[in-house]
Amino acid sequence: MIYKYKKYTEGSHSGLSLDIAGEGARYLGNIAGWDYAYLPEEVSQDERLQATIVSLSDTEKVELRKQQFVLAQKSYARLHIEHDVGDIYDLMADAMKMIEFTLVLASRFAGDAWGTNPIDPAKKEEFMARNKAFLDAVDAGEVTMRGDFDDMDVVMHKMFERVSKINTIVRDKYLGELTEVGL
Predict the structure, then answer these.
(1) In the predicted model, what is the mean pLDDT of the chain?
(2) What is the per-residue pLDDT for 14?
(3) Predicted confidence (pLDDT) per residue in 3-59, tens digit
(4) Secondary element (H or E) of residue 63
(5) Measuring CA to CA, how many Å separate 67 from each of 4, 36, 73?
(6) Could you give the CA distance from residue 89 to residue 169 in angstroms, rounded to a whole number?
């Protein structure tokens, strides 16, 4: 559960300071003077903290995702990926292979469907075997798919936003600038 609260510091010379308390507490960030923390279970808090359990709005979630806890968790996950899977260059090479495979497959299917380039029966068998092997692995739970644990509508929306932002930057800050100077 998420607690919204204000850290309390007594104004005396002793400087008594109170923060959210509870086993497993994780500080998430601050929005407009309010601190947010995650606690795995409800824990009574000192009333001077003005702590309340809240449901985060989408806007609050976006704001907290930009702050230190989430950035640290993302960095930690990236280190694990690099150690256990491969560095960014390995992942990029794998992504390029997947893009190439998907592009060839889509182009072959389009050519076959439109009659412009019918798929050779031997190639069709090869694609069918790869497709079956992949789907069998998915069905057997041998492949962890992002859609198994994440809301793919949200993931797709985020990807579309990123692609759109990248294209806008390329248009405005790269190609637009080159066009303006005649290059």
Answers:
(1) 88
(2) 65
(3) 999 888 876 666 677 788 888 888 888 999 999 998 988 888 888 888 999 999 999
(4) helix 58-65
(5) 15, 11, 10
(6) 24
Residues 6 or more apart in contact with residue 111 via CB below 8 angstroms: 117, 118, 119
How far is 25 from 40, CA to CA, in rounded Å? 7
Domain spans in the chain, listed from the N-terminal domain onward:
2-57, 144-183
Cβ contacts of 74 within 8 Å, gap of 6 or more: none
Structure tokens at 41: 């279970």
Euclidean distance between CA atoms 38 and 109, whole angstroms = 49
The answer to whether 45 and 20 are in contact (CB under 8 A) is yes
Q: What angle do CA 119, 123, 125 make, to 5 degrees?
A: 110
Contacts of 22 by beta carbon, 8 Å cutoff, 6+ apart: 39, 40, 41, 43, 45
Question: Which of 66, 65, 39 is closest to 51 using CA atoms?
Answer: 39
